[in-house]
Design goal:
With 253 residues, this protein is an alpha/beta fold. The chain has ten helices and nine strands. The longest helix is centred in the N-terminal third of the chain and has 17 residues. It binds guanosine-5'-monophosphate (G) (2 copies), manganese (II) ion (MN) and sodium ion. It comes from Tolumonas osonensis. This is Diguanylate cyclase (GGDEF)-like protein.
Length: 253
């Protein structure tokens, strides 16, 4: 942890880097989302899973430092993309518990001033667990993010204390249906009806719906028929390192 802190503060932690997974917008081939996914290849332990990296960081009070590193790294990585492509992207960053504070929106706006991205291109992914930890504080944080033009996605929807009831009380913009909802959806009618109802309800609340974990053409066709707005999954692409992302974007646009 001491080493991780020193390296994070120096700006170039060994073995830490970001991958990017495409998120396709069903009705708009001219824009693309990408989800930022943390990777840590440790010199002696090999790959450490992102939740473990986050946990180590949070346990040692490094959640903020890691969060800042992620935002800076995203800005640096994406700055190297062609300027014709950049405005078409929206970039989704996962929030850890300590990043989700009242200081977040000012911090992000400040960091984005240096970069080629506008806050309007940023989506912050929040799990239900973090969002529901303190409901009224969450409302304040989310309101300040929205005022800065930043959008919010509720991540892993369906795995936690899912209730659509609180959704209308939280200023969120998107719902990410967890991949456990999507897998085998083409073989299970009840599953399909459930996803259909959730999608309709989310749309009634003015939310955009993202289907995660779409792995096959069959699953893709079904979620499009259901009316989801955006699709993410191995069917399109695994999380990509920056050079592969560059190639993917060149093929896309
Ligand atoms: O990409 P992968 O399957 O390894 O991610 C596993 C889990 O780790 C997912 O739940 C994902 O949301 C989480 N995760 C990946 N990158 C980040 C990150 O940068 N920050 C946070 N807080 N979580 C992340
Ligand atoms: O929890 P969160 O949704 O933030 O993390 C997304 C995780 O899902 C990442 O770890 C990513 O690698 C993984 N993922 C993305 N697409 C697929 C997919 O099509 N199938 C499976 N099994 N996992 C996926
Ligand atoms: Mn996510
Ligand atoms: Na998720």
């Amino acid at each position: 942890a001491t080493q991780l802190r020193a390296e994070l503060q120096a700006g170039s932690p060994a073995g830490l880097y970001l991958c990017y997974q495409p998120i396709h917008v069903v009705d708009d081939p001219h824009s693309l989302g990408i989800e930022v996914l943390l990777r840590w290849k440790h010199a002696s332990f090999g790959f450490v899973s992102p939740p473990e990296v986050i946990e180590i960081a949070e346990e040692h009070g490094l959640g903020d430092v890691l969060g800042d590193w992620i935002f800076r790294q995203v800005i640096m990585d994406l700055s190297s993309l062609p300027s014709s492509i950049l405005p078409r992207l929206s970039v989704a960053v996962n929030l850890s518990e300590s990043m989700f504070s009242l200081a977040l929106s000012d911090r992000v706006v400040q960091l984005f001033r240096q970069g080629p991205l506008r806050p309007q291109q940023l989506v912050l992914e929040l799990t239900e667990t973090i969002a529901l930890h303190d409901f009224s504080v969450s409302q304040q944080i989310l309101t300040s993010l929205r005022e800065a033009g930043i959008r919010i996605a509720l991540d892993d929807f369906g795995t936690g204390y899912s209730s659509l009831a609180y959704l209308k009380e939280l200023p969120v913009d998107k719902l990410k249906l967890d991949k456990s909802f999507i897998q085998q959806i083409h073989l299970d009618t009840r599953q399909l009806q459930l996803v259909q109802h959730i999608t309709e309800l989310a749309h009634d609340l003015g939310l955009t719906v993202v289907a995660e974990g779409v792995e096959s053409a069959a699953e893709r066709e079904i979620v499009i028929a259901i009316g989801v707005d955006e699709i993410q999954g191995y069917h399109y692409s695994r999380p990509l390192e920056l050079p592969q992302l560059r190639h993917y974007l060149q093929r896309c646009f």
